Amino acid sequence: MRSKISFAWSVVIISITGVICSWIIISFPAPSSNDQIVAPIANIIVPKQVIAELPARLIIPAIHINAFIEYVGLTSSGAMAVPQGPNDVAWFDLGPRPGSSGSAVIAGHEGWKDNIPAVFDSLHQLKAGDLIYIEDQKGATSTFVVQKTEIYDQNGNSSTVFNSTDGLAHLNLITCEGVWNATEQSYSNRIVVFTDKEN
What we know:
mainly beta; Sortase, Chain: A; two-stranded antiparallel ribbon
C-alpha cells in the first residue's frame, strides 16, 4: 500500500479497497493515514462456535513473511482500518478470528512511500497449495492452504471476502494493486488471496 491508499470497500457492496498498497490502502490509516477498507459490517456472519485464540503472527514461508498482527476495526468513515506501518499486517477484529468458522480478513501494505518495501509486496506470487500459518497468543499454530487469488475492481462486489456461510474457517488476505489515482487516493484494483483452514 502506498503509504496512503484509500482502500475503500463500499459498506454493502464492498468497494473492495484492498489490503494495503503504497501510500496505505483502503483508507487504512497508514503512517499518514487516510486509508481504510470499508467492510460490510452489518452483513458479517459470525456463527456460534468455540472462539479461537487471538492471532499474534502471520507466517508465509513461500514469500518470506513473518509479520506481527495488529488488530483493527472501522475508521470514522466506516472503512476497515489498516496497519500503521509497512512491516505489520492488520486483522479485522470485528469479524471471525483466524481459525474460527467464517472469513477472517487480514490486510497488509503493498509498496510504501520512498520505495520502502512493504509486507505484502509479494502477495501476488502465492499460488494454490501454498501454506499460511497463524500463530496465536499462546504459541499454537493454525495452518491455512491457499485456494485461489482474485483481483477486484475497487468498486467491485467483494461480499465474499468478509462473509461465508459454509461453516468452514477461512483466512483472506488483501492488498492493493493497479493504477494509483492521486485524486481518490486509491489504487484501481485489489488482490485477495483466499485460503481455507487445513483439517
